[in-house]
Design a protein that fits this description.
The protein has 112 residues and is an alpha+beta fold.
Amino acid sequence: MNNRLYVGNLHFHTTETTLTAEFARCGEVEQVKLILDRETGRSRGFAFVTMVDGAGAQKAIAEMNGAMIDGRPLRVNEAEERQQRSGGGGGFGGGGDRGGDRGGDRGGQRRW
């Protein structure tokens, strides 16, 4: 089992310190990474918690999924591996109608 857990439905004021303390009841916590919005610095409402071993991770899923922290029921499950992003499109992120002030670039192909 993967020791890295996804923790969702967090209150925007929940901190890494709070998560570390709560998950430590299930086993030794290796790392807590609260995901923040790049522009505002505000929590995006989810985090990744890495437990030291699989037994702690399993216990954390069993005990923390649905547990209330800061008035919200947590969603805890095994984190999925991050998929690699395709790099094409001249640094524009590779595809799709991006809208915005670029006039609807599609994968770096300018249409003006």
